[in-house]
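Throughout our pipeline, every protein is held as a single compact record rather than as scattered files. The record that follows is passed on verbatim for readers who wish to inspect the format.
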Amino acid sequence: MTEMTAKDYAKIGFDEFLQSSDKEFPFEFDDIWLFLEQKRAKESWREKVTVFEDELKETEEALGENMLNVIMPVEHRFTEKQYIREFRAPAGHTVVSKIHNTNHPIFLLEGEVTIIEESGKKRVKAPYYSITEVGTKRVVIVHEDCFFVTVHPSEKTNIFDVEEEVIAKSFKDVNIEPKNSSSIDGFIEQVRNVI
């Protein structure tokens, strides 16, 4: 006989809940299980990347804030309702990004890097671009000198105000607004309405 898993026990509890409720439930068990697995994976990634960043700061190779700006300069540009950030990093460094508070494009215009993020790991070579989603924090291992450009939606023109808007201080501060009912907040709200 096969040993019961946590999912098996959860399914039993879910079925018992449905039998005892007079309300119609809008979700299938497998959808809820998948949602919870993704939520746990997201929380696990956030914890791991934060611990890695803290450990990286303690190494001899870590650059203090002043040296970081010399070794990896950032240029700031503004245009109508957009903030453009240009970032250079020399080969041999590992960079942990800030926590992004806006959806925006990121372009690798020169170099080769490995990007490690919640969805996995990929090695990319310029030219390359992708979309950074709200709440993203990634580790970038620089194999060749690289040049990144990101374009953020913002009407602000002062770098301190812009960074306050486009960078979250912690994962708890991420500005996530539900875009549709499939978002986490929308999903949770629907479940609360049924119960």
